[in-house]
Design brief:
The chain is of the alpha/beta class. It has one domain (10-282): Ribonuclease Z/Hydroxyacylglutathione hydrolase-like (Metallo-beta-lactamase, Chain A), CATH 3.60.15. It is built from eight helices and 14 strands. A seven-stranded mixed β-sheet has the order 1-2-3-4-5-6-7. The chain has a seven-stranded mixed β-sheet with strand order 8-9-10-11-12-13-14.
Length: 289
């Protein structure tokens, strides 16, 4: 009988002394009417030119960092909040041979449901009972601001404020802010705009370090050639564009490897400049570590 499913979404990459593992949480299919500065027709043309699917498909990746006896996740996936094509992190984690109880740290890039809803099981319990949660202070404070919640639309109120509060509640005694070196070899990098506390994490690998950049890019086929393509999901669109350009330039100048939550699995890539813009080049698949 021919298979009907892929093998588990697990991929390992050495970064200095750390082993970084991509764990697939699944994928999301998106419409094209999600950009501020790029029309649906322009987005479709960019995707077609880059041989990317139209409408676009977004990978949902989580990165596990094992270093110095620590087992940390960068983001937590989406649990049952984003539909049947997502929520596969527990299966991917099991395929990697790691139990939820072994995870001691969850580093959140931000508190949107495809990144933080997986802090909870579908029944509402803590998915990672022994983990502390590290999150950008500005994100936490925004989603716990009653005035801001009352002032926004019903969709954001539910998905960002209400869900966000519920997701971190079981970890309230094990929370700390994402600032500076969060543990040896991993440093928080502010990339605000998509959310106020949106944070990347730099894994020190010496001459070959890795920046896990969260939602700096959602749809690479559009936002890499057009970094001005702010998203309807951005809390501060103009600030997000500024952060994206600054992050692109930093990645190129410092020759950093990128880990992207929405870069096609396994999510590792390099960046160069192409003509007057940027190019994202996915890292070649490697059999050995």
């Amino acid at each position: 009988m021919l298979p009907s499913e892929q093998v588990p979404g697990v991929y390992h990459h050495r970064v200095g002394d750390a082993l970084v593992t991509t764990l697939s949480d699944g994928y999301l299919d998106s419409g094209l009417d999600i950009f501020h500065a790029v029309s649906a027709d322009e987005a479709a043309a960019l995707l077609t030119k880059g041989c990317q699917p139209v409408p676009p498909r977004l990978a949902v990746n989580v990165f596990m960092v094992r270093s110095g006896g620590r087992t940390a996740l960068i983001d937590a996936g989406s649990s049952d909040r984003m539909g049947p094509t997502c929520g596969w992190l527990p299966a991917s984690l099991a395929a990697a041979g790691v139990a939820p109880e072994e995870v001691d740290t969850v580093l959140l890039t931000h508190m949107h449901p495809d990144h933080s809803a997986g802090l909870l099981t579908p029944s509402g319990a803590a998915q990672f009972p022994n983990a502390e949660v590290v999150v950008g202070e500005a994100d936490y404070r925004l989603w716990h601001d009653d005035v801001a919640m009352a002032a926004t639309d019903a969709r954001r109120r539910l998905r960002y404020f209400e869900w966000g509060r519920a997701q971190v509640a079981p970890y309230k005694d094990r929370l700390r802010w994402a600032a500076g070196e969060v543990f040896p070899g991993v440093t928080a990098v502010p990339i605000p705009g998509h959310t106020p506390g949106h944070t990347g994490y730099l894994v020190d690998g010496g001459a070959d370090s890795l920046l896990v950049w969260g939602d700096t890019v959602h749809i690479p086929g559009v936002q890499v050639p057009r970094p001005d393509a702010a998203m309807v999901f951005d809390w501060e669109p103009e600030r997000g564009v500024e952060s994206r350009r600054r992050t692109f330039d930093m990645v190129i100048a410092d020759r950093l490897l990128v880990g992207g939550m929405h870069v096609h699995f396994p999510g590792f890539a390099r960046m160069t400049r192409g003509g007057e813009g940027y190019r994202l080049i996915q890292e070649p698949w490697a059999f050995t570590l």
